[in-house]
Amino acid sequence: MQNHTASSSQHSGIASPDAMRVAFIGFGEAANAFVSGWRDAGIASTLTIRAYDIKTDHPDAAIANAKRADYARAGIDGAASLGDALRDAALVISMVTASEANKAARAAATCIAPQAFYLDCNSCAPGTKRASAQILTQSSARYVDVAVMAPVYPKLHRTPLLVSGPHAETAIPLMQQLGFDSKIIDGDIGAASSIKMVRSIMIKGLEALVMECMLAGRKAGVDSIVLDSLEASFPGFNWRDKAAYMMERVMTHGIRRAEELREVAKTVEELGLDADMSHAIVDWQQRIGELGLKSMDTGADHAERADAILSRLDAATSPLVRTG
């Protein structure tokens, strides 16, 4: 794959008049990371970047203003409407929550430029991706199923991507121009996403298991002994650090992860299997995410995080119930 980085002296921060137009639907952590990577690599100077995020329409002025501040920090044009963001864009990148993916596709279909590429980077089931593709295809857009296969930090725009669908091969040169680490997966729309969805059973499920294990361990006063035992059984995994990290991920992103796991459960069920484990993972991710502990010290260890979670859970009156 070609390396499209450039020296900092070449990066003016100002796009040329004929720069490629790129539009983001949703401007959260992942979109911000992509733009940051482009800026560091000197690619941003070759682009005109716009974004539209529904948070700018939020009735709470603090939320709306915080999103506008995100645009300013990233050095991009925050559009007042989706139509303004997508106007004349050659490449549209959808990075919304899983539950909003179809809604975003329907909205984009009303204003996307003919033959524009629509990179659906959302964490959705193959069936959800196919439904979005059908909507966009009616607008003559070129839909591409994209699976983001790792956290966007620290690799930013170089985070591994899998792509599939009839327009994947045509989209790859453009994605390489933007420095994406992208790989084509043979198959129709949903082939790339099926890999991410099935993998998420293990990745997000391990987070949920660690959460339950550590909370039970703290309650029983045996968490350290359990972690030592796990390290002996699986040497080199570094269970103490991994446990703290996984717990932080659930605390910070549990609600968003629960949305993804609902799509994972849908994937499993589309394959004709029961999705009991995936539904159980939804329960833990949702409940812990709703505790609002995301601002906790990022340097905390597993014990501190477990104690903070248990304190909040003990204060709640309702038991852990299935939410998805």
Textual characterization of the structure:
The two termini are 40 Å apart. This protein has an eight-stranded mixed sheet with strand order 3-2-1-4-5-6-7-8, with helices on both faces. α4 packs parallel to α5 (126-137), α7 crosses α9 (239-270) and α9 crosses α10. The protein contains eleven helices and eight strands. Mean pLDDT is 92; it is low at 1-17. The protein has 324 residues and is α/β, with parallel strands linked by helices. 51% of the residues lie in helices and 12% in strands.
Helix coverage percent: 40-55%
Main-sheet strand order equals 3-2-1-4-5-6-7-8
Main beta sheet strand tally, sense and closure:
8 strands, mixed
Instruction: Assign an overall shape.
Output: globular
> Strand pairing plus helix content: what structural class?
alpha/beta
Number of helices: 11
Q: Tell me what portion of residues adopts beta-strand conformation.
A: 5-15%
What is the straight-line distance between the termini? 40 Å
- Number of separate strands: 8
The gyration radius over C-alpha positions equals 21 Å
Question: Could you write a compact summary of the structure shown?
Answer:
With 324 residues, the protein is α/β, with parallel strands linked by helices. 51% of the residues lie in helices and 12% in strands. The protein is built from eleven helices and eight strands.
